[in-house]
């Protein structure tokens, strides 16, 4: 291209990003995990624990040049009252979205469809005394939201987060968040000592080990925390992990006499996939 044509050629129209949300913070936790915050659209209302569709524009089609949004479901990891929206994400090296999303920087824009939905909400379970949050991997994201939700501590006497990852570094996001909740002046007033944290690893040495499922079946978690086993009269559960985990833990909860509920029919526990295998 000559200088002459560059001056006379009309600039190509850059399409404005639909539902754009500006990135305000990015933290990389491991080579597979990162979290980021975006400005919250003023009109977005959601219940802590819900998910939205977020994404980026895909690459231009080689022939038509048309770009399509590449959207995926993401739990909102921040609580409903927060001014910003936080997300906690996997980095799948050949994943259509996260191979790109992992490179976002402060000031970039993502696409955020402001239609929150989901079953991991307090409305979908019956009142009770103890609320269990069972998570593997990035399945902690909806609980990062719920752990900072005042209503959770108003409704339950005890809130127990069981989070299992393969390696210690993958627990760090949750560990730091719990530490922050317990030390922050405002959040500790919301939590009032009710939050109990039970992190475990399965493939790297750690002071507490084992799958969530195994620690429930063996009763180890009840012994370690010095509490009674799960009882349908008092205990409620929320589950978020891979498909096999969700299936296995549902069997265990059913065995304890708990029933799966939904927004339309609250019962003793609710389940959501952390990702589609
Ligand atoms: C209801 C719901 C909520 C979700 N919330 C989150 C969230 O908060 N954070 C998040 O990182 N992802 C979440 N996901 C998964 C997310 O939608 C995408 O699958 C993920 O961002 C990867 O996108 P991708 O296009 O790069 O790869 P995809 O083509 O979507 O996935 C490729 C493969 O990567 C693996 N994979 C995908 N997501 C994960 C994950 N989270 N952890 C481990 N392995 C995974 C699976 O084997 C999958 O088949 C959620 C999914 C659902 C259904
Ligand atoms: N995490 C990594 O270091 C790593 C690295 C490269 C690629 N990957 C790939 O990324 C994908 C997701 O890996 P991930 O580690 O994020 O998630 P994941 O495979 O769902 O494992 C997360 C945690 O959940 C446990 N778990 C898995 N299935 C379970 C079940 N049915 N019941 C109870 N607990 C269960 C795992 O224990 P177990 O360890 O006992 O399975 C692990 O501690 C996988 O396809 C994996 O091959 C992971």
TrEMBL record:
Instruction: Return the EC number.
Output: 1.18.1.2
Example GO biological process term?
A: heme catabolic process
Show the catalytic activity: 2 reduced [2Fe-2S]-[ferredoxin] + NADP(+) + H(+) = 2 oxidized [2Fe-2S]-[ferredoxin] + NADPH
UniProt name for this protein: ferredoxin--NADP(+) reductase
Question: What's the domain of life for this entry?
Answer: Bacteria
Q: Which Pfam families match?
A: FAD_binding_6, NAD_binding_1
Family, as annotated: Belongs to the ferredoxin--NADP reductase type 1 family.
| Residue ranges of domain FAD-binding FR-type in the record | 16-123
Q: Please give one Gene Ontology molecular function term for this protein.
A: nucleotide binding
User: Which leading EC class covers this enzyme?
Assistant: oxidoreductase
- PROSITE patterns assigned to the protein according to its UniProt record, in alphabetical order: FAD_FR (PS51384)
Question: Keyword set for this entry?
Answer: FAD, Flavoprotein, NADP, Nucleotide-binding, Oxidoreductase
